[in-house]
Write a structure and sequence with these properties.
Elements: H1 4-20, E1 22-27, E2 33-40, E3 46-51, E4 59-62, E5 66-71, H2 76-80, E6 90-95, E7 102-105, H3 109-127, H4 131-146, E8 154-155, H5 156-165, H6 172-182, E9 189-190, H7 192-203, H8 206-215, E10 222-223, H9 224-233, H10 241-252, H11 256-260, E11 263-264, H12 266-273, E12 299-304, H13 320-328, E13 333-339, E14 347-348, E15 358-359, H14 360-370, E16 379-385, H15 389-403, E17 427-431, H16 447-453, H17 471-474, E18 477-481, H18 487-493, E19 498-503, H19 504-513, H20 515-524, E20 527-530, H21 544-548, E21 553-556, H22 563-572, E22 580-582, E23 608-616, E24 633-640, E25 647-650, E26 662-671, E27 678-685, E28 693-701, E29 717-723
Parallel strand pairs: 12-21, 13-16, 16-17, 17-18, 18-19, 19-20, 20-21, 23-29
Antiparallel strand pairs: 1-2, 1-7, 2-3, 3-4, 5-6, 6-7, 8-9, 10-11, 12-22, 13-14, 14-15, 23-26, 24-25, 24-27, 27-28
Helix pairs in contact: 1-3, 6-7, 9-10, 10-12, 13-14, 14-15, 19-20
Domain EF-hand: 134-169, 170-205
GO cellular component, one term: nucleus
Domain C2: 588-716
Length: 724
């Protein structure tokens, strides 16, 4: 093991090598490989790069935008050049958000290690920064943006441009007044500390200052007792709030003197309120808190549709990266569509379309590597099998050999499904299971195959479907796909490990015609719902309608951002992001029928009033990168749940202020079934001539909201104070 000193020296050498810069080969495919010059900037936060033919035009990206560094051949592009470039010279940068990955090849193993270790160390440093350091860095970033001529100071002209960059429309007279107040040296420029004062004047939030002074004994700071009172009165904290107050002071107070005296300044107070600890998400529900020992049918399971696709359903790329991203988001049910490939190798792609093909063995290897990175609870692999008998034998061998002990091979029948706890770190295969070496004695097909048949007239040629299945593969299936006949047939005949799949339209039909029966069915059996075959653009349906019925495996196109995936991410953010959420008791009890269409008929019907006070926002991002453009923000609060709860309200819009908009509006809702409700906060840029532009959103289960002080204590309600 290397000593700390050796590690430190190596780290310094890595950073110096990165700052000096070096040529790395960017790889997009086997035929697209280009030299680029990459170097770490002096701030150790930014990487600049340019083409070998460019003279001075560097582009940049921030280290904070990098989510992970993967060493070796861990992408399709790098796998395609594995025979040309060894794994120890290759690495992949994975970016946050929807930016594509960057695959790079260094000239030597030493250079590759310098970048892999160097970026990893810089990422770790950023993650370990305290709130005060993060604020200093934030201010430094703005100073750098404003200092156009890079002389270490900004003049008033540069300050005006800064205001536009910060998304605030301030009249020149007021801006000049703030600038002069900060210019203590009377030099008509702002230097380091003067800029800090200018920044604080810009970012001062009167609404937060008012709240601060309401609890401050001297009007200047919060003592530990003052902060404890705030935590008890406003945040509704109970036992331990005095000790918690001291922890918050230690964590968020930027002044060493105030911290030593157990005091919190208004700067520290604002840092706390806008930190994750000031979030509306109840911290008790963030980690694993639910009973995980109930049958699988009692849980919502985070599920992906056609997981291998990166874009649309007809001609976009298939990629193992799609599996990596889904699994890292806590997805616990992925899909693998298997077809005959060349050289006896099964491939995965969307059959009868022009989507690209990837090798099944690469998919299974990726699943083996990432199955339990985000969650230890069981992963369901849903197989759609279109392979010949010969290639099915290959499939079975790959599943057994690559997954090894992770693969659940004990598929013995039992009276009920096992629990997530009992299946920790196990991979369950779901698919058709055929007995007596006969493919399907009844001649029935599952709904997935019916959907696939919609494309049978496609001009793309395929190998003919096989009429036989091999026992080696069938024996590995745990969740048996079966055709759905009726709720009565299921109640009297279905085995616990049998499950049916429904298209979104069929699921809606059953929910309207037989809601209680559907809910009862889902107390015993797993149900999978998938998007309509008409959604060729990979759009999604609203999952809430299916969750209301107790459907567990509500499969969505994870690659498509939007309201539907916001709801999915919001639901599965709780319970430790495990990918499993225990369904409400009303959807698990077989003796008490619940119909989401008539929630008021339940025995314990107790609606709640829900008040949301939208106070203010700060530093909202621009939606159009034009220097003169400034947003007119509004906040919309949307309730999703049973039909009676579906509602939305919004604040007025604030003209020309994305920097510190103040709404101070209270919105009111009635929640009839709180345990099924999700609350989505949406910020948009108002446009009277066209559709509003999306700025951001936050979705949270209603039961995970941490309520604030109740201004109407005689009424049963939740009250939420919302600072953006």
């Amino acid at each position: 093991m290397e000593s700390p000193q050796t590690c430190c020296e190596q780290g310094h050498q890595n950073l110096e090598a990165m700052k000096a810069g070096m040529f790395l080969r960017k790889v997009k495919s086997r035929t697209w490989k280009r030299q680029r010059h990459y170097k770490l900037q002096e701030d150790c936060k930014t990487i600049a790069y340019k083409s070998s033919w460019a003279i001075n035009s560097y582009s940049t990206f921030s280290i904070s935008d990098v989510e992970a560094v993967r060493a070796g051949h861990q992408s399709e592009a790098l796998l395609s050049v594995a025979d040309e470039f060894p794994a120890d010279r290759c690495f992949t940068l994975v970016f946050r958000g929807r930016r594509g990955n960057l695959d790079l090849v260094a000239e030597s193993t030493k250079e590759a290690q310098a970048w892999i270790q160097g970026i990893g160390a810089l990422m770790e440093n950023m993650e370990n920064m305290d709130e005060s350091t993060k604020l200093d860095q934030w201010i430094s970033d703005w100073f750098s943006k404003a200092d156009l001529n890079k002389d270490g100071r900004i003049n008033f002209k540069e300050a005006k441009k800064l205001l536009k960059m910060m998304n605030v429309d301030m009249n020149e007279e007021h801006a000049s007044s703030l600038f002069k107040m900060a210019d203590k040296s009377k030099s008509e420029t702002l230097e380091d500390q003067e800029f800090v004062e200018f920044y604080k004047m810009l970012t001062e939030r009167a609404e937060v200052l008012d709240l601060f002074q309401d609890y401050s004994s001297d009007g200047q700071s919060l003592s530990q007792c003052d902060l404890e009172e705030f935590l008890r009165e406003e945040q509704l904290e109970g036992e331990g709030s005095y000790e918690h107050a001291l922890q918050l002071i230690d964590r968020y107070e930027p002044s060493d003197t105030a911290r030593m005296n157990h005091m919190m300044s208004v700067d520290g107070f604002l840092m706390y309120l806008t930190s994750p600890e000031g979030s509306i998400f109840n911290p008790e529900r963030q980690d694993l808190f639910q009973d995980m020992s109930q049958p699988l049918a009692h849980y919502y399971i985070s599920s992906s549709h056609n997981t291998y696709l990166m874009e649309d359903q007809l001609k976009g790329p298939s990629s193992v990266e799609a599996y990596i991203q889904a699994l890292k988001r806590g997805c616990r049910c992925v899909e693998v569509d298997c077809w005959n490939g060349s050289n006896g190798e099964p491939v995965v792609y969307h059959g009868h379309t022009l989507t690209s093909k990837i090798l099944l063995k690469d998919v299974i290897t990726t699943i083996a590597n990432y199955a339990f990175k985000a969650s230890e609870y069981p992963l369901i692999v849903s197989i759609e099998n279109h392979c010949s008998i010969e290639q099915q034998e290959v499939m079975a061998r790959y599943f057994r050999d690559i997954l090894g002990d992770m693969l659940l091979t004990n598929t013995a029948d039992s009276s009920e499904l096992p629990s997530p706890e009992a299946l920790k770190r196990k991979i369950l295969l779901k698919g058709k299971k055929f007995e007596n070496e006969s493919e399907n004695p009844t001649g029935e097909v599952s709904d997935e195959d019916e959907a696939a048949e919609m494309n049978k007239d496609s001009p793309v040629t395929e190998s003919p479907p096989t009429n036989g299945k091999v026992p080696e593969l069938s024996d590995l299936i745990f969740c048996k796909s079966v055709h759905f006949h009726s709720f009565e047939h299921s109640r009297t005949s279905a085995k616990p490990n049998e499950m049916s799949s429904f298209s979104e339209s069929k699921a809606r039909k059953y929910s309207k015609e037989a809601g209680s029966d559907f809910v009862l069915h889902n107390t015993r059996q797993l149900t999978r719902v998938y998007p309509s075959g008409m959604r060729t653009d990979s759009s999604n349906y609203c999952p809430v309608d299916m969750w209301n019925m107790g459907c567990q495996i509500v499969a969505l196109n994870f690659q498509t951002a939007g309201m539907e995936m916001d709801l999915n991410d919001g639901l599965f953010t709780q319970n430790g992001c495990s990918g499993y959420i225990l369904k409400p008791e009303i959807l698990c009890k077989r003796e008490r029928l619940f119909n989401p269409e008539n929630p008021e008929k339940r025995d314990d019907y107790h609606p709640l009033l829900f008040y949301v006070k939208v106070i203010s926002g700060q530093q909202l991002p621009k939606v159009k990168q034009k220097a003169w453009f400034i947003v007119d923000p509004l906040v919309r609060v949307e309730i999703f749940g049973v039909p009676l709860d579906q509602a939305k309200q919004e604040t007025k819009h604030i003209d020309n202020n994305g920097f510190n908009p103040l709404w101070n509006e209270t919105l009111q809702f009635t929640i009839h079934t709180p345990e099924l409700a999700l609350v989505r906060f949406v910020v948009e840029d108002y446009d009277k001539a066209s559709r509003n532009d999306f700025i951001g959103q936050y979705t949270i289960p209603f039961t995970s909201i941490q309520p604030g002080r109740n201004p109407h204590p005689s009424i049963s309600l939740h009250f939420l104070y919302f600072l953006i």
